[in-house]
Amino acid sequence: MLILHDNIESGNAYKVRLLLSLLGKEYKCIQYDVVNGETRTPEYLANINKNGRIPVLEFEDGRCLPESNAILYYMAKGTKYFPDDDWEQAKVMEWMCFEQYSHEPFVAVAKFILTMLPKDTPRRAEIPTLHEKGYAALQIMEDHLSEHKWLVGEHMSIADIALYAYTHKAHMGDFDMSRFKAIEKWCKNIEAEPNYIKMF
């Protein structure tokens, strides 16, 4: 059986859980306390991921694949969640790069600071900058989704899964999501998919 090395609070890990559920794949999860260093042990670094992060998808033969978007790509190939058209494939990858470089570092980090670190953490000083850049990324999504049902093409893809994970929990990073009506509708479309599972 597939094994997902996981943390329930991680949107990156949730991406993988969501895709596996949508695909009807059986898997089991092993949870790690990332704040207290459980992915930085010598055993984890040697056997699971030398970069000391989750998620990691471990296959039946013992191979381990880290990085959430790499896992999404590998598992979605040949399914309806990754398009056949070369141009649409490139557009999926464009959105997934956008997620990792322009969205997740701000939306996800704000959530992390406000929900997983002590209230007196000095990292709270980062929140105004994270909000500024996070709102810019969300507005790019809002503008696109105002004219399209999905991020790419006529069907849900792993681009939607990748960006949904932290977007639908952005309020936990103190983002005001009431201003993003197209994103709200898009989230509901994803949540209506067969085999959809919640993050928590």
Topology:
Layout (H helix, E strand, L loop, with lengths): L1 E5 L4 H12 L4 E5 L10 H6 L8 E3 L5 E3 L1 H9 L9 H31 L10 H19 L12 H10 L13 H11 L9
Parallel strand pairs: 1-2
Antiparallel strand pairs: 1-3, 3-4
Helix pairs in contact: 1-3, 1-6, 4-5, 4-6, 5-7
CATH-scheme architecture of the largest domain: Up-down Bundle
- The run of helices and strands is EHEHEEHHHHH
Distance between the termini: 22 Å
Compute the number of helices.
7
CATH level-3 fold name of the largest domain = Glutathione S-transferase Yfyf (Class Pi), Chain A, domain 2
Q: What percentage of residues falls in helices of 4 or more residues?
A: 40-55%
What would the principal axes of the Cα set say about the shape? globular
Structurally, the number of domains stands at 2
Rg from Cα:
17 Å
**How many extended strands?**
4
Largest sheet: 4 strands, mixed
List the uncertain runs: none
Strands of the widest sheet, in order across it, are 2-1-3-4
Percent of residues in β-strands: 5-15%
Average pLDDT score: 97
Assign the structural class, choosing from mainly alpha, mainly beta, alpha/beta, alpha+beta, or little secondary structure: alpha+beta
Per CATH, the class of the largest domain reads Mainly Alpha
Task: Walk me through the structure.
The protein is of the alpha+beta class. The protein folds into two domains: 2-76, Glutaredoxin (3-Layer(aba) Sandwich), CATH 3.40.30; 86-191, Glutathione S-transferase Yfyf (Class Pi), Chain A, domain 2, CATH 1.20.1050.10. The protein has seven helices and four strands, in the order βαβαββααααα. A four-stranded mixed β-sheet has the order 2-1-3-4, covered by helices on one side. Helix 4 (86-116) runs antiparallel to helix 5 and helix 5 (127-145) crosses helix 7. The radius of gyration is 17 Å and the shape is globular. The model has no long low-confidence stretch (mean pLDDT 97).
